[in-house]
Design a protein that fits this description.
Largest sheet of chain B: 7 strands, mixed
Number of strands of chain A: 0
Oligomer: heterodimer
Largest interface: A-B, 42 and 64 residues
Structural class of chain A: mainly alpha
Number of helices of chain B: 21
Radius of gyration of chain A: 24 Å
Helix content of chain A: 55-70%
Shape of chain A: elongated
Distance between the termini of chain B: 23 Å
Chain lengths: 328, 608
């Protein structure tokens, strides 16, 4: 999994000497305040970032992905409220097929599958989010330091991260979980940290590009502290690629956490969890396929949704699908 | 230099005719170019001059029926030797481009494919247009092409890759490509903007010789009137997407009829020092920001009510010299007078008695492990401006950065501020030392953080150097904005909402906010339009006089220094080749290198 996410940034500010082309493409890509009277001057707080979200929305896959994600979130948040039973309640004989009142049948010890599906998404989503945020915080910090630092700082950090990168994240997680036991905070920590090197790489490249700009030098000449330069000069300029990275890492987190659950290193029975459900019920797959298929499909759909959003944002960032009217 | 033979412009046959060309931005329908009409005769060079966003490049590429993404040709016609270009079918268009009309891009290093040998690339053109009858024919033509642009044509040269050539050689290859199939018309899009003056002079000469000897017509697009002054037979001036004046070079320089042309002429720095430098207030409007009538109205001091409402018709005494201005007749009668003194001469005389503020003694600097500056010594005097002039790679910016503490590699020698040695790195300097020396960067597009408002940008030096209350800080910001002639309402804006000239003023204001004793200006005008450049130079000269700061003015443009500096150091390959008072150096240069720079710098000699 040596993926490189698009870290290409559109450099709007740069213009070649007196270049009509550059100047006017500016107007197309980024509506001039004077051209877009709806956008009040000065009210435009986050500039390119808002523009990116706006552009992303116009990529069809972002809309579909966001729609699915919202539906999934609704299912996960509201599901427990509408669940017909309690997740640990026995409602019938094990592996019985769908019947009246038990729409998706029962699982290996007779719990209602529908109820457990409605309850079982919370952990995956919460853990995945927490792990991704942790990975982002650690990765971005390291990436900024490496991207702005002197050569030896950069070298040392990146080589150290390469070592971490060399371990497949799932193996690393299994190793620690098998030693310390299945603890949720440990899963978050491990998954988060295994993301950090890749996020750091993306951040570093983006930060290096910005660190060469003159405004960073201007801040240095004034004697502004390094932390302030990282936080106030560089970070705000690289939010766009980081947004893409966040979406992508979220997708991977969901996959890894579901896999850990399946392997029995996540929540323990009798808790309801999609990954765990697949494992518990797989022996009865021929008799009661719903108990396995529904969680599988839901995990699949969730990752597809986050991936579509990430892809949509990435495409908007690089400008692949930008509608120029020429194609129409 | 050979004197070019004059081709009678009006007698030749019309090779290219553009009529009523209109180009719009696609989804919005905002016009980039409108009512553009001109003709080029056989063997004639037409200079198309305009500021950024004037639509000159867009108009030029439409001669090849090419439009960048987002723009489309909404009307008009382009005819080359009887062929209607705009309605040509895709197949025919491919034959036309490179065959009948060809294009030389601005940046040859980006236009040549870095993965292909130059011979292969040149051969591609000939093959695409099935030039000659055999491979031997084409190879002969390839050699001939290279000789035409004064490049070696031996096998080893042909087998080189673009990165093995210098910038000037790359541009020559691009020109050779354009001339490959002996086109009727060649479009040159600022082909020398990225080059040093010496290289530029050679490339211009090549272009001139080729057009003259093969009778090829050319459209030379540029933002610099001085560049086309010695090349073009006729000049078309474009403003905000419209041609405002077109006429023979002599007619334009003897007495332009449009106020914009006149102001543009006055904005060109003069190396001889006869003329003063006058900027045009404001900036050229981008597409969509233009007023209904004549777009120059807001910047024009001759405008009447009618100007803002109606665009004037195409008028003129002869078919050759046309102008679009309601008041052109008055201007035609008034003589073109843009002379005037530059600055106080007395200042220059007693310069040498001024105490030194920054002294640089025997400074050598390294780039990684390579020495790029070889033991230079200079004095920057109180209330005076020292200009560092040189081509790219001469070490002028390195020296400026050494003084500012921004050079990240090894520096030998002493740099002193009023007798106190300065640390190499700005972080190791005291706060007072950092405050004393302020640096203004070349590109205002890169020196202002796009995520910060002007208020936040100006607050930075004020927060670092002074302990001020919120109101006092605000007052200080308004004061520095006022000094650079900007309004306080800009405080809540972001840099991208400002024009290039305004951004550079903000960068200067940021430098002034620190109340420095030394201001280092590193090529501060090289990203700006000529008219804006002149205004910035005027501003800097005025600030220097009023505030009494010492200034180090780094530039590649020798013509600028008369307007601003008292002393000049000419640099080449990391050494000072000449150092002295501006008037002495420019009037009586001693070093060969300075003499060469002086001859190669394009000048504008007004016909009197």
């Amino acid at each position: 999994m040596t993926d490189e996410t698009p870290s290409t940034r559109k450099i709007i500010e740069e213009q070649t000497l007196d270049d009509d082309l550059g100047m006017q493409s500016n107007v197309v890509l980024q509506p001039d305040p004077a051209l877009a009277p709806g956008v009040a001057k000065g009210a435009r707080q986050y500039g390119e970032f808002v523009q990116l979200l706006h552009d992303s929305w116009h990529v069809r896959r972002t809309k579909i992905g966001l729609g699915i994600l919202l539906a999934m979130l609704a299912l996960v948040i509201l599901g427990p409220l509408v669940a017909p039973y309690s997740p640990t309640e026995f409602v019938g004989p094990p592996f019985s097929g769908p019947s009246d009142g038990v729409y998706l049948g029962t699982d290996y010890i007779g719990h209602d599958v529908l109820t457990r599906v409605l309850y079982g998404g919370r952990t995956v989503i919460t853990l995945a989010l927490a792990a991704t945020v942790l990975g982002l915080v650690v990765g971005v910090s390291l990436g900024l330091i490496a991207g702005y630092g002197r050569r030896w700082v950069d070298e040392t950090l990146m080589r150290a991260l390469d070592v971490v990168l060399a371990f497949p994240s799932i193996v690393l997680a299994l190793l620690f979980v098998s030693v310390f036991g299945p603890r949720l905070w440990l899963i978050v920590l491990l998954v988060g940290l295994s993301h950090a090197p890749r996020i750091a790489r993306v951040t570093r490249v983006a930060a290096m590009e910005i660190a060469h700009r003159d405004f960073v030098r201007a801040a240095e000449a004034l004697g502004v502290s390094r932390t302030r330069i990282l936080g106030a000069e560089i970070l705000p300029n690289i939010t766009s690629p980081l947004l893409v990275e966040f979406g992508l890492r979220l997708t991977y987190s969901i996959g890894i956490i579901a896999a850990l659950s399946f392997l029995g290193f996540g929540l323990q029975p009798p808790a309801a969890d999609w990954g765990l459900m697949i494992n518990e019920n797989r022996i009865g797959i021929t008799v009661q396929p719903y108990a396995v298929a529904v969680p599988v499909v839901l995990i699949g759909v969730l990752t597809i949704a986050t991936n579509m959003i990430a892809d949509g944002v990435a495409r908007a960032l690089v400008g692949i699908d930008r509608d120029t009217g020429a194609a129409a | 230099m050979s004197t070019p033979q004059q081709t009678p412009a009006s007698n030749g046959d019309v090779v290219l005719r553009v009529e009523d060309l209109r180009i719009v931005l696609d989804p919005s329908g905002i016009d980039i170019d409108d009512q553009v009409s001109f003709a080029i005769h056989q063997g004639e060079v037409l200079g198309l001059v305009g500021e950024s966003a004037s639509g000159k490049t867009t108009a030029a590429t439409s001669l090849l029926a090419h439009q960048r993404r987002g723009a489309k040709i909404a009307g008009g016609s382009v005819t080359i030797a009887g062929t209607d270009v705009l309605s040509a079918a895709p197949g025919a268009l491919r034959k036309l481009r490179g065959g009948l009309i060809s294009y030389v891009p601005q940046d040859a290093s980006a236009a040549l494919n870095p993965a292909l040998r130059i011979g292969t690339q040149l051969m591609e053109i000939l093959e695409a247009h099935s030039f000659g009858s055999s491979r031997a024919d084409r190879e002969a033509r390839l050699r001939e092409m290279l000789e035409e642009v004064l490049l070696p044509s031996d096998r080893s040269f042909v087998r080189r890759y673009p990165h093995q050539l210098s910038g000037g050689q790359q541009q020559r290859v691009a020109i050779a490509m354009a001339f490959a199939c002996r086109p009727k018309v060649i479009v040159l899009d600022e082909p020398t903007t990225a080059l040093d003056v010496t290289t530029q002079a050679h490339v211009l000469e090549t272009i001139r010789d080729l057009t003259r000897s093969y009778g090829v017509s050319a459209l030379y697009v540029t933002h610099d009137l001085a560049v086309v002054a010695n090349l073009a037979d006729r000049i078309a001036v474009m403003y905000a997407g419209r041609l405002v004046e077109i006429g023979s070079r002599e007619a334009l320089f003897a007495g332009a009829w449009h106020p914009y042309t006149r102001k543009l002429l006055a904005a060109i720095p003069d190396i001889s020092g006869d003329r003063g430098l006058h900027g045009i207030p404001g900036w050229a409007p981008r597409p969509g920001q233009r007023v209904a009538g004549c777009a120059f109205t807001p910047r024009c001091d001759m405008h009447i009510d009618r100007c803002a409402i109606e665009f004037p018709p195409d008028e003129g005494e002869t078919a050759d010299h046309r102008v679009r201005c309601w008041r052109w007749r008055e201007l035609a009668e008034a003589p073109l007078d843009i002379r005037g003194p530059l600055r106080e001469i007395t200042e220059a005389k007693n310069t040498l008695q001024q105490p030194s503020v920054v002294s640089v003694r025997d400074v050598s600097a390294f780039y990684q492990h390579k020495e790029v500056l070889h033991g230079v010594s200079a004095e920057l005097r109180e209330h005076r401006c020292l200009a560092l002039v040189g081509e790219s790679g001469s070490g002028k910016t390195t020296l400026a950065r050494c003084i500012a503490g921004l050079h990240p590699f090894r520096i030998d020698g002493d740099i002193e501020l009023r007798g106190t040695p300065l640390a190499r790195d700005s972080r190791s300097r005291t706060r007072a030392e950092r405050q004393a020396i302020q640096y203004i960067f070349q590109s205002p597009y890169s020196s202002l953080n796009p995520r910060k408002t002007i208020r936040q940008l100006l607050a930075q030096p004020i927060d670092v150097f002074f302990k001020l209350s919120r109101e006092e800080a605000e007052e200080r910001m308004v004061k520095v904005l006022d000094q650079v002639a900007l309004d306080r309402s800009l405080l809540s804006r972001y840099p991208e909402q400002l024009s290039g000239g305004e951004r550079q003023r903000v960068a200067i204001a940021r430098g002034l906010a620190a109340e420095p004793t030394v201001l280092i200006c590193d090529e501060v005008t090289s990203w700006l339009d000529v008219s804006v450049q002149a205004a910035i130079i005027e501003l800097l000269a005025q600030l220097q006089a009023e505030l009494g700061v010492s200034m180090l003015f780094v530039t590649h443009n020798l013509a600028l220094i008369r307007s601003i500096a008292q002393e000049v150091a000419v640099m080449s390959e990391g050494l000072f080749v000449e150092y002295g008072l501006v008037d002495a150096v420019l009037d009586d240069p001693q070093a060969d290198y300075t003499k060469k720079l002086l001859t190669d710098t394009p000048t504008l000699e007004l016909v009197q």
